[in-house]
Specification:
The complex is a heterotrimer of chains A (295), B (354) and C (407).
Chain A: H1 4-35, H2 42-60, H3 68-85, H4 95-118, E1 133-136, E2 139-142, H5 143-165, H6 167-177, H7 179-184, H8 189-214, H9 222-236, H10 241-262, H11 264-281, H12 290-294
Antiparallel strand pairs in A: 1-2
Helix pairs in contact in A: 1-5, 1-8, 1-9, 1-10, 2-4, 2-8, 2-9, 3-8, 5-6, 5-8, 6-8, 9-10, 9-11, 10-11
Chain B: H1 3-26, H2 29-54, H3 62-78, H4 83-105, H5 110-130, H6 132-135, E1 141-142, H7 152-179, H8 181-191, H9 193-198, H10 203-229, E2 231-232, H11 234-237, H12 240-253, H13 260-279, H14 284-299, H15 304-316, H16 328-337, H17 339-351
Antiparallel strand pairs in B: 1-2
Helix pairs in contact in B: 2-7, 2-10, 2-12, 2-13, 3-4, 3-10, 4-10, 7-8, 7-10, 8-10, 12-13, 12-14, 13-14, 15-16
Chain C: H1 2-25, E1 39-45, H2 52-71, E2 80-86, H3 91-104, E3 109-110, H4 116-128, E4 133-135, E5 151-153, H5 164-171, E6 181-187, H6 190-205, E7 209-216, H7 224-233, E8 237-241, H8 245-256, E9 263-266, H9 275-278, E10 287-290, H10 299-312, H11 318-337, H12 344-355, E11 358-360, E12 363-365, E13 378-383, E14 386-391
Parallel strand pairs in C: 1-2, 1-3, 4-5, 6-7, 6-8, 8-9
Antiparallel strand pairs in C: 10-13, 11-12, 13-14
Helix pairs in contact in C: 2-10, 2-11, 3-4, 5-6, 7-8, 11-12
The chains are: A mainly alpha (295), B mainly alpha (354), C alpha/beta (407).
């Protein structure tokens, strides 16, 4: 029987991990919302951002967080360009399938390029505060993990504000809910979809920097992320940002707790079991609405 | 006799001749291993094409099935079965396992199917890494040699012909289904699943059957690879990348054609091998694979065969009025199924040789 | 229709006959080259990918060996030439590399690659082509259980024996201060696991209780779960069956949880130059086994260290030494037997090595019938900001610190 302290410690770690999952899955579900596209390359961009943060720290000696003002706008622009130049040009009839292959190809190109530039060797940012931790009700919380969680939470909040409070957010939600109707009322849906894509990719930039603070990175790491993220968006209901956030926190927590009796690797399978179970019982996901059902 | 049939027979004869004369032309055992790798790719891509070609479901997860075939073969040999009995028994088991897997995966269409197929590979990778007492974990599994004592060069020669035989069997099965009423039903599903269901085609059963057939041949390919190669590592057996290579080959060659995946396997396999020989196994070949896949998806999603034949027809045949409204493959299908039009085309071609 | 078929059948028959005939006579080609040509030695190494750092170390060792041999007039009066291929740490690729080296390039000799994971498949290629296979890195138990007859490991001891001296030391501590509990975490890698489990078996036999025993797959980056368990157990000893980065990550995570063991031993990671900085310069007291130190007084080592330093500008490490000793072992056999080519020569080389002892930079090596070396590893510890030999007593550069200071 695991001790209470170990369980509490694990719960805290689960919450911190879930926050990062939530941010990344939000990006993934956003692409799906605006364009019915499963963006396999999302986690590859995540790792790319982590490499940029690592390289930024290596080259300048500054804190990796300072790379964000560069990477976030760049990723936003790349996202818009990717949507306008590549994905929008696929034939609508086969777009869902072909977009998977296309984004898969992009992921492989990113992985190969990172491998060519930085070799396959693992890297880790060395920070003065890497090993530092705070005491929280008997649990030890690493400063870097707390920082990563804070970044994820802030980005989620910003995303929420943009989606609900701004005119662009309204247009975006209208486009997600009913593209044809949105077009009819005069929303430039093409441009909105492009910006939605940029927004999704910007979450990868923030997530990648957060990830780089506390994790070792290597080019093929993205395969470890894409599986759990896909599981989260299916469980949360494809296209539903709020559902995704809830699913991410819940699954992050459950997987952390499962690690105690099962060990790291078996616990990972939990994500996929949740995915299969969701598709078998409730294919539209547990928090998804009309949108997920339609697809 | 029809010209198409003669052409097809000639292609088959030349192809078979090329395959069978390859070991002599290869010269050294290394080239033979390259040949085996390519024929193995061709088997897997053709096996993939039972699902991808007939019902149009793109599975990125077929390496799960080939990996299961490989591990199944190895584990059954360890349990005491003779090598080739184990190979077929493993394929049968994978086919059996494909029933629940297929039933779960084929319930969902489009993006969800792809997600499920990728998840299948990733979960099997975790299971085979973790269940070390059975699978050897990350350390992998050693498959005993089916013909112990054979010099390595002879071992390769034997397996080249075994792989060629498996390829012939897989192609034959695809061809038989392609010509059958069953195949017609499958293709109806590919074109419009809802309509074909309302026309009375048992779509779910049809999809499941063809998925199981595909799984069996994929598992045979994986199992034969295990017997040939001798070492199984979960990271390479359950790799999304291997699965995507199958997709790339089939798409490049053309999923609606019997020899499409084979052609794709030869082109992509030879390209990858010579790329590795020239630049080593650097991550650059990942970039090359990715660019190739992206290029195929963007510019010729119907594959090389339709792209070339439509180019041929545009250059030398009659001008199509609305080439953009009908896909090249659909045109080709129509041409094949409507002899009358074909006659007109033939007449045009002979008449107006520009 | 008929005519077509007949033509086809005739063609096929002709082709099949041609194939069988040519295939039958195509295999009798000689290899090896004549007296004036250089002796080409084929090697596949992980120059990129997971094992690229140690892989490059082995490569430097091989290159140093080739230079020293060639400067001294070559082998059998012929120069030696190394042909390197990069297997990208990929088991699939390493097989194809040796296939190419032996089958296509017809090299006269081969040297082994790095890491047990790659040694087993490549050794099978060499075995089935009847080639001698001396390797610098396949130390795990598994390597020697495949029934290979041509394989020799050119280092002092197999992985399960690496911690022997430390186990003896720990169990000989006075009752009052002797540790009672231990926690183990190992990568699911034959080499890393063999080291940790060899130690575990000896400690358990000496009555030290195992509280945690975790295995993680290669490329694991998230150690929170494992570290939380180890920290919660508060074991006296922590043992990491690590390569490099996983060891660093585990230690950093343990530091975050403020877990302070009395003794911490990790394989491979602490011997790397980057290690102390990577864990925030809190390496004091961390232990690791090693098979080599540049200070050792074996006759050939003095020459090796001197010339290596001149060639590469730095002291050789364990990987470089193991590469070099591989070269020494093969050279000794070639000189004694007097041949270096594919074919029956290889069998003679194998037979000679089974019957003789070879002096190398890591000490005198001899092997049992499965190619296992019969020597002992040393134990190093981070003392005063650098890693130093602490066991055996005869070779020590510093005294072993126990219990370990806080990190």
């Amino acid at each position: 029987m695991p001790s209470g302290a170990l369980v509490f410690q694990t719960v805290v770690l689960g919450v911190l991990l879930g926050g990062l999952y939530a941010l990344l899955a939000a990006g993934l579900t956003l692409y799906f919302g605006v364009m019915r596209v499963v963006m396999i390359a999302h986690s590859a961009f995540l790792i790319l951002a982590a490499y940029l943060a690592w390289y930024f720290q290596l080259a300048t000696g500054l804190d990796p967080l300072l790379s964000l003002p560069i990477t976030v706008p760049v990723f936003f622009a790349v996202g818009v360009a990717m949507q306008r130049l590549l994905l929008a040009r696929l034939q609508p009839a086969t777009r869902t399938m072909m977009s998977v292959l296309l984004t898969f190809a992009i992921a492989v190109v990113i992985e190969g390029a990172l491998g060519s530039l930085f070799t396959g060797t693992q890297h880790r940012i060395q920070l003065g505060y890497s090993g530092a931790s705070l005491e929280l009700l008997g649990a030890r919380v690493a400063v870097v993990k707390l920082l990563a969680f804070a970044m994820a939470a802030a980005a989620m909040l910003a995303l929420y504000v943009v989606m609900t409070r701004s005119r662009f957010g309204q247009a975006l939600r209208a486009t997600i809910q009913h593209p044809e109707a949105a077009k009819l009322v005069g929303i430039p849906t093409d441009r909105v979809v492009g910006y939605g894509f940029g927004l999704g990719l910007a979450t990868a930039a923030i997530g990648g920097t957060a990830l780089a603070l506390d994790s070792t990175i290597y080019p093929s790491l993205h395969w470890r992320w894409i599986g759990p993220l896909m599981a989260i968006i299916v469980v949360g209901g494809l296209g539903s940002v709020v559902g995704t956030a809830i699913a991410a926190m819940a699954l992050g927590m459950v997987m952390s707790l499962l690690q105690i009796p099962l060990g790291t690797t078996w616990a990972q399978t939990g994500f996929y079991l949740a995915l299969f179970a969701t598709l078998a019982i409730r294919p539209q996901g547990f928090f998804g609405g009309r949108l997920a059902k339609r697809f | 006799m029809r010209r198409g049939a003669i052409v097809r027979l000639a292609v088959i004869a030349i192809g078979a001749g090329l395959v069978l004369s390859f070991p002599a032309a290869a010269g050294d055992p290394y080239m033979l291993t390259v040949g085996i790798t390519i024929v193995n790719y061709a088997v897997l891509a053709t096996a993939w094409n039972f699902v991808g070609g007939f019902i149009g479901y793109i599975s990125l997860g077929h390496s799960a099935l080939s990996g299961l075939g490989a591990y199944g073969t190895a584990l059954l040999i360890a349990a005491g079965l003779p090598s080739f009995v184990a190979l077929f028994a493993a394929a049968a088991l994978v086919a059996l396992l494909a029933v629940p897997i297929g039933a779960a995966a084929l319930r969902v269409r489009g993006a969800s199917f792809v997600i499920v197929s990728i998840a299948l590979v990733l979960i099997l990778l975790l299971v085979f890494q973790s269940w070390a007492s059975l699978t050897g974990g990350s350390r992998g599994l050693v498959v005993p040699r089916p013909f112990p004592g054979l010099h390595r060069a002879e071992h390769h020669l034997v397996f080249f012909f075994l792989f060629a035989a498996l390829l012939a069997g897989t192609l034959l099965a695809w061809w038989l289904i392609d010509r059958s009423r069953f195949g017609l039903g499958l293709k109806a599903i590919r074109e419009d699943e809802d309509k074909s269901q309302s026309l009375g085609i048992p779509t779910f059963a049809f999809k499941l059957i063809v998925f199981v057939v595909s799984a069996a041949f994929t598992a045979l390919g994986g199992g034969l690879y295990a017997l040939w190669f001798g070492d199984l590592d979960p990271v390479f057996q359950f790799s999304v990348l291997t699965g995507s290579t199958m997709v790339l080959m089939a798409l490049l060659g053309g999923v609606r054609h019997l020899f499409g995946p084979l052609l794709g396997a030869v082109v992509v396999g030879a390209a990858l091998e010579s790329f590795k020989l020239a630049y080593g196994d650097t991550p650059l070949h990942l970039v090359a694979t990715g660019l190739l896949l992206g290029g195929v998806v963007m510019f010729m999603p119907e594959g090389v065969i339709p792209a070339l034949s439509s180019l041929w027809r545009r250059r030398f045949g009659p001008q199509e009025a609305s080439i953009r409204e009908v896909t090249a493959a659909a045109l080709l299908d129509r041409a094949r199924h409507e002899p009358a039009e074909r006659v007109v085309q033939e007449a045009d071609r002979t008449g107006g040789g520009r | 229709m008929d005519s077509v078929f007949r033509v086809k059948r005739g063609m096929t028959a002709a082709v099949v006959t041609a194939v069988l005939v040519t295939a039958a006579c195509g295999r009798d080609r000689k290899s090896g080259g004549s007296a004036g040509d250089p002796i080409v030695i084929g090697v596949s190494l992980p120059l990129t990918g997971d094992f690229s750092e140690p892989g490059k170390g082995i490569q430097r060792g091989y290159e140093a060996w080739a230079k020293i041999v060639n400067d001294g007039g070559g082998l059998l009066g012929r120069q030696v030439k190394l042909k390197f291929l990069d297997d990208a740490s990929n088991a699939d690729r390493v097989v194809s590399d040796y296939e190419q080296l032996i089958g296509k390039d017809k090299v006269a000799l081969v040297f082994g690659p790095f890491s047990t994971r790659l040694v087993v498949p490549s050794a099978r290629v060499a075995e089935e082509y009847g080639m001698l296979f001396v390797e610098p890195a396949g130390a795990a138990k598994q390597v020697f259980e495949q029934g290979f007859k041509n394989l020799f490991y050119a280092a002092p001891a197999v992985a399960t024996e690496h911690y022997n001296l430390l186990a003896k030391y720990v169990l000989a501590l006075p009752e009052a201060t002797r540790p009672r509990t231990a926690a183990y975490a190992s990568m699911d890698d034959p080499f890393a696991q063999s080291t940790a489990y060899g130690f575990k078996a000896k400690l358990e036999a000496g009555g030290i209780k195992t509280l945690v025993n975790e295995v993680y797959p290669p490329n694991t980056t998230e150690f929170s779960g494992i570290a939380a368990k180890i920290a919660a157990s508060n074991a006296d000893i922590v043992v990491g069956g690590s390569q490099y980065q996983d060891g660093v990550n585990l230690i950093v995570t343990l530091q975050q949880l403020n877990y302070q063991p009395k003794l911490a031993a990790f394989s491979t990671a602490p011997t790397e130059a980057e290690f102390a900085k990577a864990i925030g310069n809190k390496a004091e007291g961390v232990l690791a086994p090693t098979g080599y130190t540049p200070q050792s007084k074996f006759p050939s080592n003095v020459e090796f260290v001197h010339k290596y330093t001149a060639q590469f500008g730095g002291l050789p490490g364990e990987d470089e030494a193991n590469g070099y000793s591989t070269g020494q072992v093969v050279a000794a056999a070639v000189k004694a037997v007097g041949c270096a080519e594919q074919g029956s020569c290889q069998g003679k080389l194998v037979a000679w090595l089974h019957a003789n002892q070879v002096e190398t930079v890591v000490g005198p090596l001899r092997w049992d019938d499965r190619g296992r070396p019969q020597g002992e590893h040393m134990i190093q510890q981070w003392v005063g900001g650098k890693i130093q030999i602490v066991l055996p007593a005869a070779l020590k550069e510093a005294d072993l610190i126990y219990p370990k200071p806080a990190w």
